[in-house]
Amino acid sequence: MSIVAHRRVAIVRALVVGVALATAACSSTSTNYVPEPVREAPDLTYALTLESSPKLAVRFDVGVIGSSDGITEFALDEGFGGVKQAGSEFVRPEATDERGAPLQVERPAPYRFIVRHPPGARIALRYTLPETAPKTPFVDSGHFRPVLTSSLLHLIGDVALVAPRHLDSGTRRVIELTFAGFKDGGWSGATSFRPDLDAIRVRESIGAFRHGLIVAGDVDVDVGAVRGRPVAVAMQRGAFGFTADEFAARVRRIVELQRAYFRDDDAPYFLVSAIAIGAKSETSFSAGGTGLTQSFAAFLPPGAAFHVDTDEAKLIDGLLAHEMAHHWIGGRVAVKPPEAEHYWFTEGFTEFVARRVLADAGLLTRAQSIDELNATLLEYHVNPEKNAPAARIADAFWADPNVGDLPYQRGNLVAIVVDHAIRARTGGKNGVDDLLRELVRDAGEGQLVVDTDDLLLRISAWAGADVAARVRAVVVNGETVELDPTTYAPSLRYVPGDPPQFVDAEASPTP
Ligand SMILES: [Zn+2]
User: Fold this and answer.
1) pLDDT of amino acid 12
2) Distance 392 CA to ligand 1 centre (A)
3) How far apart are CA 198 and CA 184, in angstroms?
4) Cα 410 to averaged position of ligand 1 atoms, centre (Å)
5) What pLDDT is attached to residue 24?
6) Topology, domain 330-511
């Protein structure tokens, strides 16, 4: 169950001066989280070793019983989050049998390693990550690629931890992850499975395990409880204009809001990382993130701060709320491949939920929330790809920025349409929130995997068959989303046009 729930390029918008934002403090208590120990021998091991001489490098040793046909392929997820030539950072692939004798390794692509060995033998594949080049931010998904500098290691498992192809990725297995040389070198860190770099052995599918996060180096790790469960925040030290405490409090406030929204406190542990990517700019703010197993990674510009005189605090909150919502939309409720055909749901509904949760908590003011709504309407209406069908999104999501933006905009508006229809039908008693909570509830202890047809059936049940038919025409065929003029009436007044906009009816002067 490899989940790719990622935000492309989150927010690139000019900063607007003069907007105040109410900061929400959050009390947190420290907790020592140790996952339930798994005692069985591991089926798959990953050992990371930090080497400082002759040069800085991290060595990866992957151990497994090889395929019964004597040919074992290990692979990274080419195309994950738009990453091309995954694995091209890694050098010196070598393989050995259990006595340490060398085995032949072929590498037909940067992301494929093929080892020949006696059938069914225990084998180990080794590869090395040298210090990585400075990244060009948010271009060609550079922020998702492995990062190794003298003070930071940041790894998303899909493009850093190879998977043995002969073991299917969905079956739960015992997987071990160990670190050597990190503590001795003064490196701290955390993973998707515990808030330090101690060895872990978990029972997890290979897909979910590899869809996790490893962050180490000059990193402040702050662990606190949210609704009784530990949430770790790992922040690159000295990179931002806020302290680790301030950032962790902000993160935990948003985790708390999202858990309350989805009415789900089941996650035993959660990690949020923040590292600096890109360059500081006076005129724009570029940030991104990706939702991962029991975690999400946030990428912020150096010096990012919760400035109250600009929109920067709002943009950071928006990013955190979006990525946190992916724990449910895209995570617990995942979509079938091709994923991009379902981004109207996993990205668009996530945008909707992020705005609603922040607005309901007062982290977005009424004016900011109306501005966000109108910005979405405007961006959608000027998008030259606004009538692209689902198949085009699947083809060109990563290649064409307008196509890449479309499911965020279109799906957000579709969520508004569905929400309004449910409210109209139930006299305001229910909304799209209830449909989302129903999906999460149906995921039970595990994961619910849906496609557009499944989602349309739910929409039909909650909002009516006519609404489901309209949504299908939009998300499958690319027809233009039309909002009902009574959406948000009487609080907001709908002004038709291209784009249509909402004005605050309560703030409007009486004629
Ligand atoms: Zn997203």
Assistant:
1) 34
2) 19
3) 12
4) 14
5) 29
6) Neutral Protease; domain 2 (1.10.390)
